[in-house]
Amino acid sequence: MACLLLATLNCLTLCQDSRIVELEEALIKIKCHVIGLAEVRRPNEASMDLAKSGSVLYHTQRLQNRMAGVGFIVSVRASQFAR
Q1: What is the C-alpha to C-alpha distance for residues 34 and 37, in angstroms, rounded to an integer?
Q2: d(CA 63, CA 4)
Q3: By the 8 A CB rule, do 66 and 43 touch?
Q4: Which of 8, 36, 42, 58 is most open to solvent, judged by the fewest CB atoms within 10 Å of its CB?
């Protein structure tokens, strides 16, 4: 029986696209199916495909003071757990 692997990460900020590229490169080394993110700080609510790592990033928008925002990353490998 397969196990669903979960993790959390305080990413401090992903407001610049260059930070998402850094995160995606790190994801290649992380063997988790779902990663909860804190302090995302993206300007709007959205989802984006991270093709290099085979994951999808979902996130909320930051607050007016540029703080907060949460999100999660779902690996393509997590699809085996969906019903």
Answers
A1: 10
A2: 31
A3: no
A4: 8
What's the pTM value of the predicted model, to 2 decimals? 0.83
Q: What's the per-residue H, E or C state across the chain?
A: CCCCCEEEEECCCCCCHHHHHHHHHHHCCCCCCEEEEECCCECCCEEEEECCCCEEEEECECCCCCCCCEEEEEEHHHHHHCC
Token pair for 59: 């996130």
Listed residue (66, 79, 71) closest to 15, CA to CA: 66
- Highest-pLDDT range among 5-9, 16-20, 38-42: 5-9
Q: Are 77 and 33 in contact (CB under 8 A)?
A: yes
Q: Which pair of tokens denotes residue 24? A: 């995606």
Give the HSE-up count for residue 28: Cα atoms under 13 Å, Cβ half-sphere: 9
